[in-house]
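Q: Hi! First time doing this. I have a protein sequence and I read that you can turn it into a structure. Is that right? Here it is:
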Amino acid sequence: MKRFFAAALAAALLCFSPLMAAAAPLVAKVDVSTQTMTVIYNGKVEYRWPVSTARAGKHTPRGQWNAYWLSKYHRSSIYNNAPMPFAIFFNGDYAIHGTDQISRLGRPASAGCVRLHPEHAAVLFELTRQVGKKNMKVVIDN
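A: Yes, that's right. Below is the predicted 3D structure, encoded as structure tokens:
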């Protein structure tokens, strides 16, 4: 009986572990079609913000990643030392970061990163620091 219970528990854990992994404490969900980010913190929608993703001829990747590097005062090594405040890197050189081109938020304008108002980027950066990079998920779709 103990073996059966242990096997059933192991099977249940294997089946539900992908669901548990997707339930990160902090999720930044970017909808490219609407140029918006929804921030979900501990299962509750906390913020909805306009963003800018890739302009014509550039690409913002689609998928899911965990944050892997935070850089509060980052500057681009690719695009003329452009400021990227409160950068949260999630896929190679791609990051969520603040921008000084606030008037362009809400429409495609970046070289591929996800741009936010600097105040919003600061909030997301601090939440990511609080929960830890491995507990922050970036989801980009549409």
